[in-house]
Write a structure and sequence with these properties.
Layout: H1 4-22, H2 25-29, H3 34-62, H4 74-81
Helix pairs in contact: 1-3
Length: 83
């Protein structure tokens, strides 16, 4: 079983990977074929969606408060994550 710190570190590492994938903007500037740019976008989305799901699932119990108040705003989370 992972501790909250381990889970936070794992999510941070995954977000770092997503950040690298999202830096594909140079591909557009360099005139890369559309299929290559779309492949990079798909990879970024594929890496980011599980992170969003993990944050929403663990929420206040493991990673800290989700919202600004004391309660969990499930409707807002659903709109942001769009399952």
């Amino acid at each position: 079983m992972h501790t909250a710190v381990q889970e936070a570190e794992e999510l941070a590492a995954r977000l770092h990977k997503v950040e690298g994938q999202a830096r594909g903007g140079h591909m557009v500037a360099e005139g890369a074929p559309a299929i290559d740019v779309l492949t990079q976008v798909a990879a970024t989305r594929g890496a980011l969606d599980p992170v969003a799901s993990a944050v929403a699932e663990r929420g206040a119990e493991r990673l800290g408060p989700i919202g600004r108040g004391d309660g969990c705003d499930h409707a807002r989370i659903s709109r942001l994550v769009r399952w």
